[in-house]
Design goal:
This is Methyltransferase domain-containing protein. Keywords: Methyltransferase, Transferase. GO terms for molecular function: methyltransferase activity. InterPro entries: Methyltransf_25, SAM-dependent_MTases_sf. This protein has a single domain, classed as Vaccinia Virus protein VP39 (Rossmann fold). It contains ten helices and ten strands. The two termini are 33 Å apart. It is an alpha/beta fold and 259 residues long. The strands form two sheets. Strands 1, 2, 3, 4, 5, 8, 9 and 10 form an eight-stranded mixed sheet that branches. Helix content is 45%, strand content 25%. A hairpin with a 2-residue loop joins strand 6 and strand 7.
Length: 259
Amino acid sequence: MTFAPEWLALRENADAQARSTELVDALRETLVNRNPLTIRDLGCGTGSMGRWLAGRLGGVQHWVLHDRDPRLLGLAEAGMSALENVTAETREGDLTSLEAADIAGADLVTCSALLDLLTTDEMNALAVACVEAHVPALFTLSVAGRIDIDPAEPLDAAFQDAFNAHQRRVVDGRRLLGPDAPAAAEEAFVAAGASVRTAQSPWRMHGDALQSEWLKGWVDAAVEQEPALASEASEYLRRRSTASVVVHHVDLLALPGAV
């Protein structure tokens, strides 16, 4: 699955405002005296995570940017290389089969809005790889399956349930975690022997361009899952376009026992 650069640009500010700085503070304490830092960013997109995190970690950093989309990798590498004290390289390919050997030597593995696209087995394997390689993981903005819309109306629950079911769909024989990702990630890292902290990282929107684009995608996915909602979709979109919306996410910091 790939994402348009325009969508990633639209959401970057909301992502930056939502991510937990408390988890970064806790992470930074474990990285003291590591200079330079080598950071692997999984599903990097255009480099949003790196642009948000690099300055918060400080020091000299080398980012290894992983993605399946070569166009996004080019944008990410250019953006990250422009940052002070940061170098970057890219890795194009599948992220679902990384092993400990693939991330050995890194000081940190990160991702943003990625875990819902994994399966349970892939999530378990990623956790084991990070712990076996003794590499901390900071995974942000995993969708939690909860949307708050104010003022509320009865159809909200129907569209939310349909969207969540769509996120758990089977794609090419793989059942995606969707909104089960935060719990699955925590369970996987704890089972692998890591200590885990989580934090809420909600988007908050009120009638802006991000809300308009997100709401259209949310409703379209719900209708694809439950075609009976199609007759309600147009008017529902019109009514909700000026509402206040909170999209709940979860950030996770996992520290292997050896860190």
